[in-house]
Request: fold
Amino acid sequence: MINLILFGPPGSGKGTQAAHLVERYNLVHISTGDLFRYEMGNNTPLGLQAKSYISKGELVPDAVTIGMLRNKVEAHSDANGFIFDGFPRTIPQAEALDHLMAEEGTVIHALIALQVPDEAIVERIKLRGATSGRTDDSDENIIRNRINVYKTETTPVFDYYAQQGKSHSVNGLGSIEEILARLCAAIEGIERKP
Ligand code: AMP
Reply:
């Protein structure tokens, strides 16, 4: 079993790479952003609540996000492992995730951060916004707010797992195949117990 956090700023390619890693390592992919978009698309109470934050590029409150994540993990308790994408984004989320993994009798094995400079991120997200239909991808102010939120609220999560000796960084620039190869090299070096 291996549980990974795919980490990095918005637009760093987490979703794209997660899709490849899921196939290669037979993992369950949980993207909190995708889960929120699904809920918003169905106009559920959770979706409506999330929308007011997402449309401004702010984080959905921890209690809401953690509850949604917990349901998803518990629904896959027979999984071979998880790849978390876009979660955890705050220290309380990281603590809740560690707690949840312990309840499942396992641990987070590694956090792997995709490193991409700010300007490349803004360009990538704007490009994605042209086809994704995501309103948070098409307004430069919202994009920059998401990057700021990442820097202030989310980067401490890297240090949190670094203190456990679990944080790794990978260059997130290059072709999809090149970046995937770097991620796989990092994953091959990870201790997989328990
Ligand atoms: P993403 O698709 O991961 O870029 O997420 C899109 C938006 O969903 C973010 O800008 C946040 O508003 C919200 N979101 C996704 N994951 C989380 C999370 N773990 N905590 C709080 N908000 C989140």
